[in-house]
Fold this sequence. Notes:
This protein is of the alpha+beta class. Helix content is 40%, strand content 19%. The chain contains eleven helices and 13 strands. It has helices spanning 11-22, 103-114, 138-153, 160-175, 182-189, 230-248, 261-266, 275-299, 303-319, 326-337, 364-379, and strands at 32-41, 53-54, 56-69, 74-79, 86-89, 122-128, 194-199, 205-209, 215-221, 343-346, 354-360, 384-386, 395-396. The strands form three sheets. It has a six-stranded mixed β-sheet, with helices on both faces. A four-stranded antiparallel β-sheet has the order 10-11-9-12. Bound molecules: alpha-D-galactopyranose (GLA). The site of alpha-D-galactopyranose has 10 residues, from helix 5.
Amino acid sequence: xxxxxxxxxDTVELTHEFIKRFGKSxxxxxxxxxxxxxxxxxxxxxxxxxxxxxxxxxxxxxTTLIVRRTHDNSFGFAxxxxxxxxxxxxxxxxxxxxxxxxxxxxGVINQFDMRGFDIDGVDLLxxxxxxxxxxxxxxxxxxxxxxxxxxALFQCGLETMDLVKLCQKAENDxxxxxxGIMDQFAVAMGQEDHALYLDCxxxxxxxxxxxxxxxxxxxxxxxxxRENSESAYNDRVAECEQALALLGEHVDIKNLAQATPNMLTxxxxxxxxxxxxxxxxxHVVNENERVRAAVSALENSDFKQFGRLMDxxxxxxxxxxxxxxxxxxHMVRISREQPGVLGARLTGAGFGGCTISLVPTEAVAAFxxxxxxxxxxxxxxxxxxxxxxxxxxxxxxx
Length: 398
Ligand code: GLA
């Protein structure tokens, strides 16, 4: 069995930290520890909210939560990653105007509350090692770890998929991003050494072994932090809704992911007055095809094909969906120039954050060395690299 203790920080030390911040309790057993990973998306970008296909996996980095009930309707928030701390009354947990990091767990508390669960207070200490704003789902990780802990501590009896949906709703309502379900699903449902092939329309999924032979997926962080990208993200969601409305007048589809390349060709004229919408829908339809092809390629150990699909995905996100950035494009270009690299693309929501590249394992050190040099020359930014193992989903630690 894989030793999960390597994935998560030392809970003994964090429990001491918790007591330092929130005080001792009479019943030491009342403190528990939980963990949720982050995720990296291999392919299938900006398809989830259209009911499309995605292919992410959970990673062996994530968020640990130490938690204890307060029973007095007060909610204490602290993090080893951020100096901001706060204590909220129960009433304040429905205040959607808060801007600090605590809005992620607060949004989740609020969702439980709105479903009628009597959440009468918790103290929460978070500690994470996912870089924030890097496209590796640090926010979904915080949300899901909060949800699994509340579900157990207050005996709510919700299934994991209910928690996934609850966390997506928290992000939609509280944080204001009209995100799809991919991130919350991936961090909750991750499986060691596997990627998750998910149909976001039906929520059917299967796990696919991540067997890359002599290759590794390397995550490269552009260190261009994604900021205030919520409105650009929500614009894309709205444009996809418009595409569905336009196309839906001519073909019988319930979501945009049901549109085929053939339908687009046959009804190209409906987008004549809407060139931006035309670009968005072309990306979504082709990206879905690429996910299908990428899953087969991986299952057939056709890594060249997998790499080509990564390259095509990036070009489409850059030119048609327009969510790349200058640093991301430099990172992808420079990564591809390295010997033996089979493909590279931005991962996650774009506008900064990380890329992934398919690199010969024996060349990873040289890859990181050369990319650091050339990327710095091009952007004056110091990149960071993360290797990872596909990891298990959110769980209780102690
Ligand atoms: C963010 C969102 C996801 C998904 C990706 C893009 O990570 O939270 O729902 O849309 O962007 O694929």
